[in-house]
Amino acid sequence: FVLGLFLCCVMRLVCCCSALLLLVLTPRVCQGGKILVLPGEGSHWVNMDIVLQALHSRGHSVTVMRSNKSWYVKEKAPHYNAITVQVERSLDESFVAPIVSETIAFERGSLALTNYLYVTIGMFGRFREAHEIVSELPSALPDNTELVTWVKDSKFDLLLTDPCWGGGAIVAKYFNLPLVYNVRWLLIMEAHLAIAPSPISYIPITLSGNTDKMTYLQRVKNMMLHIISQVQNNIIIRDIYQKVCEKYLGPDCDYYQLMIDADIWLLRTDFVFDYPRPTMPNMLTLIPNTKEIKVSLFVMFSFVCLPRHRLWC
Ligand SMILES: *[C@@H]1O[C@H](CO)[C@@H](O)[C@H](O)[C@H]1NC(C)=O
C-alpha cells in the first residue's frame, strides 16, 4: 500500500512536471507572430530589411507586400515571403537617381535659408509625384479581390510599415490590423514632432543646423522650417492620401488622424546623435547595434540622421 501511495505520488509529480514543462515550452512554440510588412523603397528598405531579418531570426513569420515593379524589395528572400501587387508605376532608379543627385548637390553647398527654401519648394513637385506613384499600391490593392481574401484569411497579427510613404496606414485600417511604424519621417515631417510634445523653440528642426539652445533668430528660422514642412505635409495628405482613404475607407475617414494613430512607433534614431526631448510611451528607439552599423556606410547613413542632414533617412 505504501509503495502504491509512493508510486502514485511519483506519477503525480511526473504529471505535474510534464504539465509545467509543457507550459514553459508551448508559449515558445506559439510566440512567433505573423507580420505583414509594407516597406518603402531604396534606403528605407535597407534598414527595414535589417529589422525583418531580426524578426525572422526570433521566429516570427514575415510577409512583405511589394509591387510588381519593386526596385529593392526582391520577390525571393530566405527571411520573408513576398506578395506582389500589380501597379503601373513604382519608385525605381530612373525616378530616384536624379532627385538624389540634385539633393546632394544642394547639400554640398551652404545651408543658407534661401538655399533651403529653394530646395524644398523646388523639390516639392518631385515629392508629390513620388507620393502619387507610391499611393498606386494601396489604391490597387482593394480591387484585387483574390489578394484581399488571401490577406484576410492569413490572419496577420500586425502591419509594419515605414510611414515616410503614406500607404501603410490605409492598408492597416482596411484590414483592421494594429499598425507599427519603423519611422524617422512621417511623409515630409520629422515623425517625433507629430505626436510628442514639441515646443519648436527648444526642438531643433532637422536641416536647420540649430541645437537645443537657440538665439531669437534661430528660433524664427526653426519655426519657419517647421511651418514649411507642415504645409507640404498637409498638401500631400489632402491631395493624395485623403482621396485614397475616402475611396476605400468611407467619406468620414480622416487620413491625418489615421496616420498619427499608429499603435507603436519604432524610431530610427540614436540618443548619441539627437538632442534630448520629450517623447511618448508608444515611441521606442530602434538603435542599430555596432555589428549592423558596420554592414555598410549606406545603412549607417540611413540610421544616423543628424539634424543637419535629412537626406535619405
Ligand atoms: C506590372 O503590372 C502592370 C499592370 O498590370 C504591367 O503593366 C507591368 O508590365 C508589370 N510590370 C512588370 C515589370 O512586371
TrEMBL record:
InterPro entries: UDP-glycosyltransferase, UDP_glucos_trans. It holds the Pfam family UDPGT. Keywords: Glycosyltransferase, Signal, Transferase. The keyword Transport does not apply. One of its GO terms (molecular function) is UDP-glycosyltransferase activity. The keyword Transferase applies. Residues 1-32 form the signal peptide. Belongs to the UDP-glycosyltransferase family. This is UDP glucuronosyltransferase 5 family, polypeptide D1. It comes from Salarias fasciatus (Jewelled blenny).
